[in-house]
């Protein structure tokens, strides 16, 4: 693949719910503080992709306008630096980089062949690692933030930790719990195939979230010490609260009220933690876990498709034929 910079490129644009174009556009040029990235792989982000292509805002109450910003909502990407804007000294042309943070909604995204992106939101990565192993680093950073929150209360080392929701975030959380020294990691999900995959990536055991199969009890040996909810579904959070001794951290986007029973205050009480802030340390920690072969992001990728087949890829996510899809903008 040549690293020459053409005058034009291809980019994806969602122009209406369920409708996209694979359009020709001018190749961007990096502004001060930016680099131009030649995109070699972009991982889907199921919640973003399903909502925006489906005509719903990602967060309740937000306004959603079409056509959507070009290249959006692509933000989990790996590529090669092919040009630098003024003031960029810590990244070099020819370096392989991965995006660790979404730079915001009001700018083009990575569903394109090239993207001009703030250098401060990119990390250099080993060239020998495949795109599937790197592209979802931004997700891993997001999940690591929840472990930072639990660290404020002593962390997960040596503890029995529950992860509710075994989609992409949950499968990352299972592995990071192990990386941070959890003694046992329990994967919780209604879908049997996801529970099976969780066992392959580090879960000590998996359970169905059917309350009839696991009676609520915060005082017995089956109880969790700490837990992370990756669903955002109030019944799932309630399930964890009534089976966890110390703290439940929220990662999934909450779409409803979460009841906190007065009995949860005692015994001692269980803490319900909100989310923290995205930060570079969380990204660097996740990248260290990858380098230590304790975080495998490649297991999240169920299929690789040309970016021009984006709608087909999102349909695979919607029908649960895929956990994540890696898109190739050059195929």
UniProtKB/TrEMBL annotation:
Pfam families for this protein: ADH_N (PF08240), ADH_zinc_N (PF00107)
Keywords: Metal-binding, Oxidoreductase, Zinc
The name this protein goes by in its record: Zinc-binding dehydrogenase
Family matches, as PROSITE patterns: ADH_ZINC
A Gene Ontology molecular function term of the record: zinc ion binding
UniProt similarity note: Belongs to the zinc-containing alcohol dehydrogenase family.
Classification via InterPro entries: ADH-like_C, ADH-like_N, ADH_Zn_CS, ER, GroES-like_sf, NAD(P)-bd_dom_sf, Zn_alcohol_dh
